[in-house]
Design brief:
Layout: E1 19-23, H1 28-31, H2 37-44, H3 54-79, E2 85-96, E3 99-103, E4 111-116, E5 141-149, H4 152-163, H5 167-195, H6 206-209, E6 217-220, H7 232-239, E7 247-248, E8 254-255, E9 259-265
Antiparallel strand pairs: 1-2, 2-3, 2-5, 3-4, 5-9, 6-9, 7-8
Helix pairs in contact: 2-5, 4-5
């Protein structure tokens, strides 16, 4: 199918390095501002508004729920429960139809791998590949890959609470692990935008950041625009995922379970979209 009408006149940023880097010993407090507390409190922990309006629920969260979160953060810092780690890397790439071709270097034509991606059949007929320069353009673009994890011990700790019938504590830690991984992805993505030179365009409020009020987009595997979970194996190989203890399990799921990977586009028009 023909490439969509995404503008390709945007400036291609120059990355600070090529290949992958590892971020270890990331303090939980560093990613705390990027954790979506609304999702954590309402959906992971199950504290619904129950008739409270927006301002009343904010006051309730501050008085009753923030102290629970702060207690967990203190315990994690003390006992090293959540162990945030990340890998990310900059790679030379081009779009080839509905595929993204990853090269060994900007000067090389050696193809390391390619990602075959779906295209919308209706609406704008978008494909993730459209947000990168095509082979026909003769230009090389920059693709960012990312892999983050909260670590195996955090999952083991929560599971032990479950086995001891401490269900409320299990719920707290299980929710923090899940949202902590998402917060870590936001934290690393913000670092990437800063390194590429447009971090100052970010929205200042977390509520706006999680609505993609920043340049570019992060496409995680398993979602409509990037559905093939098996493609994560390519990311794990290129980033050398053993360095942070992440592997692919059965049914192409990442382990530890609170881990996530993504392809990142810097294009100003790149946002989430559905494929149908």
């Amino acid at each position: 199918m023909q490439r969509s009408a995404v503008d390709s006149s945007n400036q291609i940023p120059v990355p600070p390095f090529w290949g992958a880097r590892c971020l270890e010993n990331i303090p939980l407090r560093a990613i705390l501002p990027y954790i979506n507390r609304t999702t954590l409190y309402k959906f992971q922990w199950g504290f619904k508004p129950q008739g409270r309006d927006v301002e009343e629920y904010k006051a309730y969260s501050k008085a009753e729920l923030d102290p629970i979160l702060n207690r967990l953060v203190l315990a994690s810092d003390r006992d090293n429960i959540l162990q945030p780690k990340a890998l990310y890397g900059y790679y030379s790439c081009q779009a080839d139809g509905d595929s993204l071709v990853i090269y060994a270097s900007p000067e090389s034509n050696e193809e390391l791998c390619r990602f075959d991606l779906p295209r919308q059949r209706t609406e704008r007929k978008l494909c993730v590949a459209d947000f990168f320069r095509s082979k026909e353009s003769g230009e090389r673009d920059v693709m960012v890959m990312m892999l983050v994890t909260i670590g195996q011990y955090a999952a083991d700790y929560a599971r032990e609470l479950f086995h001891k019938n401490e269900y409320q504590e299990y719920l707290y830690w299980h929710g923090l692990n899940a949202e902590g991984a998402e917060g870590l992805a936001e934290y690393v993505h913000k670092r990437i935008r800063s390194e590429l030179g447009f971090g100052t365009e970010d929205a200042r409020q977390l509520e706006d950041l999680i609505k993609q009020h920043y340049r570019g987009s992060r496409y995680s595997f398993g979602y409509p625009a990037c559905p093939n979970l098996a493609d994560q194996r390519k990311i794990l190989e290129l980033l050398d995922a053993d360095r942070i203890g992440v592997v692919m399990g059965e049914e192409d799921q990442l382990w530890p379970e609170d881990s996530t990977s993504a392809l990142i586009s810097h294009h100003p028009a790149a946002k989430y979209f559905s494929v149908y």
